[in-house]
Amino acid sequence: MEPLLVSLLGMLASGYVAEDSVLGKVLGSEGEVEDGEDEELENAETSEDGSSPLDFVFPDDNSDDEGSSTIDEGEPADQAGSSSDQAATGEDAVSPEALEDEALDEDDLAEDDVLNFEVLTGVAGAAPTLISGFDAATDDPETHPDQLFLMDADGVMIPESEFADGNRALSIVDMEDGSGAALYLDDELVAVIEDYSADELAADTSWVGNFQTGAVETLDIRDEEDETLLAPESTEVQAEEETVQVAPEVEEPLVEEPEVEDAAEAPAEAELAEGEQTIAETEEETLVAEDGSDSLAGAAAEDELSEEPTISMEVTGAEGTGQFVKDALFGANVIYTINTDMGQPLDNIIESMEELDIDHIRFPAGQGDGPAETEGEAWLNIVDLEYAEDGTVSLGEEVTRLLDWAQDPDGDGDTSDAVKVTLVIPTQHLSLEEYEEFGEEIELFSQLVSEQYPDVVAAFEVGNEYWSSLGETEYGAKANIAIKALAQGMENAGLEGEEQADIIAQMATPNHASEYHVSVSDGSWIERLEAANQTIIDQLDDEARAELDGVVEHYYWRQDNEVYDDSLAEKNYITKDYDVWDANFDKELDLHITEWNVRTTSYHENGMKSASTILEQFENMIEMGVDSADVWAVNHNTATDLAGDRDGEVTTDEFGRVTTSVRGAVFDLMSSSLPGKELVDVDLSNDDGSVEVNAYRDDEETVVYISSRSMEVETIEIDLSALVGDYESATGVKVGFDQSSADGMHWSTEDGRVEPDYVMINGEKYYYTEHDVMAEYTDYEFDSAVITVTLKPYEIMEVTFSGGNADISSGAEQVVSEGGQAEDVLTGTHEGAGNDDHLQGTGFGDYMKGYSGDDTIEGFGGDDTLAGSQGNDVLKGGAGDDLLNGGQQDDRVIGGSGDDEVIGWTGNDYLKGNEGNDSVYGGAGADKLAGSQGNDELHGGSGDDFLNGGMDDDWLSGGEGADTLTGWTGADVFSFADGEVTEGDVITDFEPGVDVIELEIPGLRSVDDLVITARAEGGVRVQIPGHGDILLEGDLTVEQVAQAGNFLFIAQAA
């Protein structure tokens, strides 16, 4: 059997390199991390499992290469040295038996969470290092892997740039005896890692310390008499849930009631914990003085403009995205046992929500679902009704108190200030058989709520993190019952259409009790994720699907990369989930993020460092099209609360801005400044990621956030002229943290009181991840669009320009036109007006054209013709056999239930056929085409396109460009004509004996004309001499692919 060889370039080509590694960023790949949630229950702590992350192509995302690569991996000998080196595997490479007797016992090792090992290389005659008990964490993206550092002969770590530049090559080969994997550095066998395969190690390279940013100090755990490195046995941890962790019974304060340490007491507290004083000795050294000076920053607020810039940038382009900030994005979780007294919100959270401008809540939050044995204690069953002796039925006391308050928060009888509520319906406390009967209770509950509080309840959410105790089949079956019961209850109450609250259900996460957890299911993370989502969907009948309005995810930041990269990993692969649902429905489902924040246990991403991350998460949600979002949490005993602990009081400065935490300060700025504004896509010169810029605007003002992602004090000069044009006035506010509130210690649920991460600035420790510090604001006025500001590490600046005439946005004015009861011709505002039109057809055959502006055109019934023309348009065909043409720019064009013709024309379009046998044409640009249901034809056109046939038997042709083709289900045909085979063409799910590759190329008449070879990193390459290659991903062999029945040759004259 040939040894499996996986080089770094090979890892890149198959999407194996982790995107959050430096190598992944340099080479432009995207890895996978497991999605999951970050809730805190009352007394238990768990964390989720994952799997080897393999990149999956298509659904709707922003990936550039989707796991494929135009790099030619070459033959194995090109990757790992000479053929003799490749053959040095198994006993020929190293003998584990020979080294076994000299291995250290695990009891000799420290019980650290992460161990770091040095492997010396380049020493003539040195034996390879045998590594036992190494934990690469390849099956759990939540677990930080042990680190292996490759050192040169002088003991200096080999820099990542040596590998990225191609000067060095690290290869991994399976041991023939199955005992582990051999590591080659160039042509030198340097180490053997026991109990791992080459595939497992190649799936995520975050264990290679040389490739990681901010690599920790290495630890060489080595027996003096041999080269054997060992580590404690790795353990698989369980999925994290929403828990309130209780601190161990020691002399420290309980985690449930953390206090912000008083500045006068902080030194003593620190001495008890660490035996050293960690705060500055004088007020002048830590506080901003009356003249605005700051010893750490080395500049005064009014003097910063005179600082010599260390970073100079310029906005070189700006364009409105057509995506606007909705009020519903500033919601929050109100937790039953933390924030209410039997459903009545406590005074502190009411005040906190007022200061944070929160007018949408989720109740009872994560405590809305759970097992039967803890019902009423750890969680609240809101469906539990009260039956009186006279036969009357009423809502439970807790629900009534909560909704009474939400209906009239200040109790003045005026309900115009009502707070909207999402209610969580339990799913985990009953068996499926019992839940059938519970459906009757849900229906009655829905009716009572809808009769009494029709203008308060915005949504019913079915369950909370089902995967903590349910599999997908059971959750889907229960959701099917609950959805129909909720809908029937609202109908019984006399509510129709838009009067009804939304019904939303959870998308899948293969964690913990999931049927697709790594411990019970094979396949990559993405394969299991998609299967889990599909299983839930398959349990929903037609009635439930018709009543379902949206889907739910939780979005917790779990990245540790210094530079934001807009990858799928940053967005927790939420779009991957959504695409599975989107492919199964003939309507657009809303997307709700009912929990979001930095992960509570991501202590190295907290404090000041979290400020820009909150901004990035929020921008990501806008880009994903999120319809509502509820932050976790406002007042709570966690490291990420916005306004203090469960008993804490929100604090503000003289201008009413929240100062309780840095996270709260940033949320407060956004909730005050952004509603109604359009997200603006900004291009920057000199953009190396050390400065992040987020921009929004409307007709009255432009708001720009400038964030430092540098570990140095930076004076940043940024020219925003192209973004704002001529403006009336400009002001700024910088958010840092109050040095007097920092004592150099904070609480960790794992380790108690610990010292946060810091850097030295002017001889003092700057604790940039201390999570229990208070925010501090510095205000500015500017007289130029060229802004200069000095930022300490991770500080952020909000700049607001009033007025401004730069022509960048899509425009907010809308025209809504509706056709009558006939075949109508509707057109938007005349060409050149630049308005956004909303055209609606009828049940007849209509012709509608939008002209300029970002238009929304809906055909409804009849055989319609819809044309977007100019602008970023949304076209929806509805029923009937429709012709839809997006026209110029980037459009979203979606067919309906008939046999539609969907055309993108120019621009980077998203095109979907939906039901029926559709024909979808991408045209020019990098397009994404989805057939969905029916036997569809997909034509990519020019550009690098992504095609997904969806269900049934589809025909896919990528056309010119490097295209990624996914057939999905059914017997699909992948077609390539002369001139269309391009380096980078990929078929992701070719199934031999079922699917067919159609080749319409001169001179090609049989399989004998092709060169079919196995790829070292997996899959098969079909080479068409003189034309190019097609890469087939998946667990395929040459023998399986090289069958005549897998190809259809359309002969042409040579």
UniProtKB/TrEMBL annotation:
The keyword Membrane applies. It comes from the Bacteria. PROSITE patterns: HEMOLYSIN_CALCIUM. Its main location: membrane. One of its GO terms (cellular component) is extracellular region. Residues 77-88, 265-278 have a biased composition (Low complexity). It is found in: Membrane; Secreted. GO terms for molecular function: calcium ion binding; toxin activity. Residues 31-48, 61-76, 238-264 have a biased composition (Acidic residues). SUPFAM superfamilies: (Trans)glycosidases (SSF51445), beta-Roll (SSF51120). Residues 28-93, 233-278, 923-962 are annotated as: Disordered. Keywords: Membrane, Repeat, Secreted, Toxin, Virulence. InterPro entries: GH, Hemolysin-typ_Ca-bd_CS, Hemolysn_Ca-bd, RTX_toxin/Mannuronan_C5-epim, RTX_toxin_determinant-A, Serralysin-like_metalloprot_C. PANTHER family: S-LAYER PROTEIN (PTHR38340:SF1). This is Hemolysin-type calcium-binding repeat-containing protein. The lineage of its organism: Bacteria, Pseudomonadati, Pseudomonadota, Alphaproteobacteria, Rhodobacterales.
